[in-house]
Amino acid sequence: MQLPSSILQDIQATVQSGYYERLAPVRRERKSVCEAIERELAECRLPVVLEVATARPGGRLLLPNRLGAAELVERMALLKPTAMSVWVEPRHMAGDLRWLGRPRPFPVIARDLVLDARQIVGGDAVVLSRSLLTMAGLDEHPLIDAAHDLDMEVVMEVRTPEEMERARASEADVVAIHNAGANGGGLDINTTLAMLSAHRTTRPVISCAGIRTPAQVRSLISAGASGVEVDAETSAGAGGVQIIDALRKAVSGKTAMENGS
Which residues contact 171 (CB under 8 A, 6 or more apart)? Predict the structure, then answer.
């Protein structure tokens, strides 16, 4: 994603505001993203993570307001995804920590712009962006340790082969390859395909964004991906439910949704 130059100061201002202490969900029994992925694969089902966001950096709204996002969380929960990745960052993504508080039958991943251990609250797992940490000149290991101390798993998002190598050398539990790549431009699943060709890992690998057809899914699974994340634009868009349903059936070949693949 393209982030504004003021992002580091904005993140620190949010931390200092007490947002994370004030709205942190009550601790509950954790669910494992890794185990959820393993269960789906063992039962020959495609692991699908659903991303939910109200906005994108720069003020581009995906939903009219936070209430719309809260309603979308509830609608997406009915699809029983492998996991749900929910944006909780309030300034740029118009998120809300309270969305993490309701118990779900699947793991909920807290998606945020994390630079400080105080941001690691709520959810069953947390996303760390290697690109953002590089921008801030930060090492991922203390943040991974902080999450593990709270019995939370870590999803390390990477966009380049160099970031993939760092993720492989870390204690991150899941690797998420973002198909925007290093430049944050157009989405292309070849980002995932090329990275997995050169950098295999035994950890679960999720290919993120730009995945809309069964043919793409089959290419990703053949290359070594464990599952996919359906981006917020698709989740919230017209026909999103149908696309998600078709992707989930792609591995078993039960779908007829091949047009445009």
Answer: 141, 144, 145, 148, 154
- Among 78, 111, 79, 82, residue whose Cα is nearest residue 96: 111
Whole-number Å distance between alpha carbons of 138 and 166: 13
Is this structure's pTM higher than 0.85?
yes
* pLDDT for the residue 240: 81
Q: Name beta bridge partners: 33.
A: none
Write the DSSP string, 170-230: S--SEEEEETTTTTT-S--THHHHHHHHH---SS-EEEESS--SHHHHHHHHHHT--EEEE
Exposure string of 14-27, with b = 16+ CB inside 10 Å and e = fewer, is: bbeeebbeebbbee
- In CATH, what class is 31-248? alpha beta
To the nearest 10 degrees (0 to 180), the angle between helices 214-223 and 240-248 is 40
Taking residues 60-82, report their average pLDDT. 76
CB 124 within 8 A of CB 32: yes
